[in-house]
Design goal:
21 helices; globular; five-stranded mixed beta sheet
Length: 861
């Protein structure tokens, strides 16, 4: 046993002899015995460590494991800040202000016919830079009120606007404004018009640098000199000349506000090129002026004195756009921008090669037809009314929707407004076929419960009150020349364009239903004065010539609407630009379209029709004439199975552009659609289709729509004389080949007779004529049948026998053998020699009417 005491805190039983654990106080004081813990209890030091040391970390369980800790959030925020700040610093120093890009001086666009031959270039840049001091202060402020009212006090960029634009670009929602003037200037002058995130990023850094290195005045001056204002005008000075014919120093507040308005939509807000958009342009103009008042740049008193400053009519003077070229270029530009294929600014930057759908031979044929029938006959020095004459025309392939020819006016550099696309002249009675198509499409009935067909009878008296479901509507339209027609069929009312019948027909169908049908056929829903009232049938709507061509092309294509296009292909730097898909649609049933076509055929083929001049095409044709209120416009809309064309003659004062009546133009007391417009149509169609096979109409008609001969509703219109034949047509205009016999139609000394028969059940078309030694003509113009019979049409011709004019009449035979009815004589004279009555004689062929005036029924077969 050792004499040395054991170490304090050592377990006497511990054989290791190791040092004792220190107490919680660092061990027992000297001289005090060590504390001996009870057996099984922990030592005090161990207990103290267990009770007062670090607590074990509690593990997170369940959904709490998904949440970031506060350390993670803090480090994440710091990382984002570092990245953003670092990126901004790097971008600021890495992106330099570049030289002006090529787009700052726009290159030309090239426009081509479908065959690749050139039409025009629009690349002569109209630009003249001016100093900011040359721009009146009110004009500067008008631009700021339109585009960036806080320009002088704001930073170079609008982060929210950029974020919004970037989001729209990423999500495919298109472009959106919100950029500052500084950003717009950077885009115009240093970058380009492409909508990409990279370009937006560059725009941001260049704008920030530019704002630090250049004054606000310098930036505004650059913006005013690089912005596009339409009419091929780049910069405020060029715009002042293009729209008002004077330098920018001479522009007043109202004119400056209009120029500022153009920055939002250069082409669409040109109220001369697009008079239909004047409301929208005026609203933008008011927005600019109201902004000037709000910023105290213009007093309220001065604001109320301002009136809308209509720009001058002097458009671009580029000789390369003379003739039809300028109209074509403008129409193509409008098509591209309105269909959101290329926007104004991007197109103005140039470099595009645009192949149109226009066919050069047909384009030339249309121009020649206008020149031959109208332009060459104008004598403005002798006839003041000739100064007001304007012509618009458009032609579409109904099977494809391709616009193959257009006529906008005599010369783009002389008459700036495109008469083919303007929407400010009433279409008149050319709207009536849409009413008939709507009636058939919707199975409409008269107020007596009878189904409406071409053979349905209506009262055609002048000023007849339109009757609604609840009685008189208060609308009693006048017929042309205030003529009463009595009880007539819808077909006759179409031939003679009877307003009283069609107003009642529109009421029976439902004006809103008619409106919807017209829109389905191709008339834009935004067409001015397209209102759902009974008067809709008389054509107060002001659709364009091109709009009407689209709608009639739908009828020609058996009710299938092929959306029209002016553009076949676009490339830039060899790469193709995507064109939007055009989807065809069955606008109305084939039966509705074809039955309407059947009725419109008689407008051309029948002697009582108003469109007989269209027979010059030498093709099976259907069409309708129309006259605007006060004879301010005359229309002819027609088609063959393979070509649809609309021609309008309009009256406009050359100085004020106000609509003018056409009385006295071309030396005629009155100009109507059956005159020059139908004559242009006939000559053009013959030339455009020359060399192509003659196509017949293949028509599927509504039940009960077969063409029938009917007595006139007025005694004065009854056949007279012992040679007159009785009506007796049971045939139809349903498509068939003439296999029944042929009537020579008789002769009418000095006139022309369109007798003819079409009696066979196998379908077909017989068109032609045989010269008559006596000066007339004998022709067969059989109908199109698919099993029905059609006796043809005997127009009687125009005779000079016995010192007068014989307007002939209408005759239709009937059954398989083909019978004809010589018709009735017109007023003013007697017909030439020959049996059969005063209006032309029946032919001697099988089934013809004998001189006695009776019409035998031909034997079957």
């Amino acid at each position: 046993m050792s004499d040395e005491p054991s170490q304090q805190g050592q377990d006497p039983e511990d054989p290791s002899g190791g040092p004792a654990e220190p107490s919680a106080h660092g061990g027992s004081p000297p001289g005090e015995p060590a504390y001996a813990a009870p057996a099984g209890a922990p030592a005090p030091a161990v207990a103290a460590r267990a009770g007062k040391g670090k607590r074990p970390r509690r593990r997170r369980t369940g959904w709490r494991r998904l949440l970031p800790t506060w350390r993670m959030v803090l480090f994440g925020v710091l990382a984002i800040v570092v990245i953003v700040v670092g990126g901004f610093i790097a971008g600021y120093y890495l992106v330099d202000i570049p030289r002006a890009n090529a787009a700052a001086v726009a290159q030309s666009n090239v426009y081509l016919y479908k065959d690749g031959t050139p039409i025009a270039r629009d690349g002569d840049i109209n630009r003249e830079n001016v100093s900011l001091a040359q721009v009146p202060r009110t004009v500067q402020r008008a631009v700021l009120a339109a585009e960036d009212r806080e320009f002088y006090g704001e930073p170079a960029v609008d982060p929210l606007g950029m974020a919004r634009a970037a989001w729209n670009t990423v999500t495919g929602k298109g472009t959106q404004g919100g950029s500052t003037i500084t950003q717009q200037y950077v885009k115009n002058y240093y970058l380009g018009q492409e909508q990409t995130l990279l370009r937006k990023a560059k725009e941001f850094f260049i704008s920030v640098k530019l704002n630090r290195e250049r004054s606000k005045a310098e930036i505004l001056q650059g913006y005013l000199n690089t912005s596009y204002f339409g009419r091929n005008a780049y910069g405020i000075q060029a715009a002042s000349q293009a729209y008002y014919g004077k330098d920018v120093e001479q522009i007043d507040t109202a004119q400056g506000a209009y120029l500022a308005s153009l920055l939002n939509a250069p082409s669409q807000f040109d109220v001369i090129a697009h008079p239909e958009n004047k409301g929208a342009a005026t609203a933008r103009w008011n927005y600019v002026l109201d902004g000037m008042v709000k910023k105290h740049w213009l007093t309220e008193a001065a604001r109320t004195k301002l009136t809308f400053p209509t720009p001058s009519r002097s458009g671009p003077s580029n000789a390369g756009l003379s003739g039809q070229r300028g109209y074509i270029v403008q129409a193509v530009k409008d098509y591209l921008t309105s269909h959101k294929i290329i926007d104004d600014g991007t197109l103005a930057s140039g470099g595009y090669r645009i192949t149109t759908t226009l066919q050069r031979p047909r384009q030339n044929a249309l121009v020649k037809a206008v020149d031959d029938n109208v332009n060459s006959k104008l004598k403005p020095d002798d006839r003041p009314a000739d100064k007001n004459v304007r012509i618009g025309g458009a032609s579409i392939d109904p099977s494809t929707g391709d616009v193959v020819a257009m006529y906008g006016g005599i010369d783009y550099t002389k008459q700036y407004v495109d008469n083919a696309t303007r929407r400010d002249y009433q279409v008149g009675s050319t709207f009536k076929p849409f009413v008939l198509a709507s009636a058939i499409q919707n199975g409409s009935e008269t107020q007596d419960g009878d189904p409406i067909t071409p053979n349905t009878h209506y009262n055609g008296d002048n000023h007849r009150m339109v009757q609604g479901p609840n009685g008189p509507t208060g609308y009693a339209p006048a017929n042309e020349d205030d003529r009463d027609y009595g009880d007539i069929t819808v077909r006759t009312a179409t031939n003679k364009s009877v307003n009283a019948v069609y107003a009642q027909l529109a009421e029976d169908v439902g004006p809103s239903t008619v409106e919807h049908t017209a829109i389905d056929l191709g008339i834009p829903a935004t067409t001015p004065d397209l209102t759902a009232t009974p008067s809709i049938a008389l054509g107060p709507a002001t659709a364009s010539v091109l709009d009407m061509t689209q709608a009639y092309a739908t009828l020609a294509h058996h009710g299938v609407r092929e959306p029209y296009t002016l553009v076949a292909r676009i490339t830039k730097d060899g790469a193709a630009v995507a064109l939007p898909a055009r989807r065809s649609a069955q606008a109305v049933s084939r039966q509705a379209a074809d039955t309407t076509t059947s009725v419109l055929r008689t407008v051309v083929d029948s002697s009582e029709g108003t469109g007989t001049a269209a027979r010059a095409a030498g093709r099976p044709a259907a069409g309708k004439t129309g006259t605007a209120e006060d004879d301010r416009a005359a229309w002819f809309a027609g088609y063959t199975p393979d070509l649809t064309t609309v021609v309008a003659m309009m009256g406009a004062d050359p100085a004020t552009a106000r609509h003018k009546a056409l009385y006295g133009a071309l030396g005629q007391a009155r100009v109507n659609g059956g005159g020059p417009p139908a004559q242009i149509w006939g000559q053009y169609t013959a030339a455009a289709l020359k060399g192509s096979p003659v196509q017949s109409f293949d028509l599927h008609l509504q039940h009960g729509a077969e063409q029938r001969h009917e007595p006139s509703g007025r005694p004065s219109d009854e056949p007279s004389g012992p040679g007159s034949s009785a009506p007796g047509d049971t045939g139809g205009d349903t498509g068939g080949r003439d296999t029944g016999g042929t009537s020579t139609g008789g002769t009418d000394d000095g006139g022309a007779t369109d007798g003819g028969t079409d009696g066979g059940p196998t379908g077909g078309d017989t068109d032609g004529g045989t010269p008559n030694p006596a000066g007339g003509q004998t022709a067969t113009t059989g109908g199109d049948t698919t099993g029905g019979t059609d006796g043809g049409t005997d127009t009687g011709g125009t005779g000079t026998g016995a010192g007068g004019t014989d307007t002939g009449g209408t005759g239709d035979g009937g059954t398989t053998g083909g019978t004809t009815d010589g018709g009735t004589a017109g007023t003013g004279g007697t017909a030439g020699p020959g049996p059969g009555g005063t209006g032309g004689t029946a032919g001697p062929g099988p089934g013809g009417a004998p001189p006695g005036g009776t019409t035998p029924v031909a034997p079957p077969g």
